[in-house]
Write a structure and sequence with these properties.
α3 links the parallel β9 and β10. The chain is built from ten helices and 15 strands. With 347 residues, the chain is of the alpha/beta class. The protein is globular, with a radius of gyration of 21 Å. The strands form three sheets. Strands 3, 5, 6, 7, 8 and 15 form a six-stranded antiparallel β-sheet that branches. The protein has a six-stranded parallel β-sheet with strand order 11-10-9-12-13-14, with helices on both faces.
Length: 347
């Protein structure tokens, strides 16, 4: 039985994927569930975090869906033949890209029967991130205005759908003509799509115009520019809004939820946020597993994501499923941020 793992290359800048032969897994431990994996979604792996784990090899693929083969003696939530979905913890020894995996029961929820395997695995993490951003960091509610940057991305798509389901008005940015056309086809419709691909449209000005000068209540960024355009290397970085633009378009009492882990705010930035009474929150969906106190909320979120997927409230951005033998190529595409749709490996 083969499983896919990754390690850093000698330069420490990229990861190398290798298949390793695994022995048959032992009988499930007390709280473990043995799963036959049916689908596994791929997410970007943080190389710096990989180096801090002090392990030569790290498993690849953490969002899995499958059938329960066997349960440990103390497992209370699941039985053999149950269909389940979940996210392997960051320190897991198990690779999701393997036919069989052992998972602690507290990382799994039941998968609705009518939800396909690929959709379940491909939606679970984006759903968790959207809930974390919109419910627990910014408290979305009816009547609020939400700006979702890069709304045509897999995460952006789910965030738009969750915000609309909660009664919010959504504005989104598009990085290309294809993204703009995709966003305009969404139902219910997005209030406004801002095409930033040519670099001529001012995001802050467009948002203030759309909100009558009041500003946006919640901003979900997809990264921000910390410096001037000349100092940024890649085209995508030049398409990102400057941090000052985000602060400008925020409303009084607004919430900025950022995915920029190296965000640096200068005193004038902080002063402007202070005057607006606005907040900045960092979106890191791994925090749910750092405290056992959060376990109940975490599982409730996963269950709610599956319920909304079952009811077609969530309609994910998925690429065509890929067989296991092509998984290495898909991992490389994801690591280089070249995938515009969620990559899922199907068994």
């Amino acid at each position: 039985m083969k499983a896919l793992y990754c390690k850093q290359n000698s330069a420490g800048e990229e990861i190398i994927c290798v298949f390793q032969e695994r022995e048959n897994l032992p009988v499930a431990r007390d709280n473990d569930v043995k799963i036959r994996v049916k689908a596994c979604a791929l997410s970007w792996t943080d190389i710096k975090l990989l180096s801090e784990m002090k392990k030569e090899f790290l498993p690849v693929g953490r969002e899995i869906a499958g059938v329960v083969l066997e349960v440990g003696s103390k497992v209370s939530f699941f039985q053999p033949d149950d269909e389940v979905v979940g996210i392997l913890p960051l320190d897991s020894e198990e690779s999701g890209l393997c036919e069989v995996a052992l998972v602690h029961e507290h990382y799994l929820v039941h998968k609705p029967e009518k939800v396909p395997w690929v959709e379940a695995a491909g939606t679970i993490r984006d759903g968790l991130r959207a809930y974390t951003a919109l419910h627990y960091l910014s408290h979305v509610s009816p009547g609020k205005t939400v700006l979702v940057m890069d709304g045509a991305s897999p995460f952006g798509t789910i965030a738009i759908q969750l915000a609309q389901h909660r009664g919010a008005k959504v504005i989104s940015t598009a990085y290309s003509l294809e993204d703009e056309q995709y966003l305009e086809r969404l139902r219910p419709p997005v209030a406004r799509v801002i095409d930033v691909s040519n670099g001529k449209i001012d995001v802050a000005e467009s948002c203030l115009e759309e909100t009558g000068g009041l500003g946006v209540d919640i901003v979900l960024d997809a990264g921000v520019r910390l410096y001037s355009k000349e100092d940024e290397s890649t085209l995508k970085q030049q398409l990102l809004p400057h941090k000052h633009d985000i602060i400008t378009l925020l409303s009084a009492g607004g919430h900025w939820v950022t995915t920029e882990k190296n965000l640096q705010l200068d005193p004038p930035d902080s002063h402007c946020l202070f005057l607006k009474g606005a907040t900045v929150s960092f979106l890191n969906d791994e925090v749910w597993n750092l405290s056992n106190v959060q376990q109940g909320k975490y599982l409730c979120i996963l269950e709610d994501v599956m319920e909304k997927l079952s009811n077609s409230i969530f309609r994910p951005q998925l690429d065509e499923p890929v067989p296991l033998y092509e998984a290495k190529v898909s991992v490389e595409i994801v690591q280089k941020n070249q995938a515009r749709k969620r990559q899922v490996i199907q068994f």
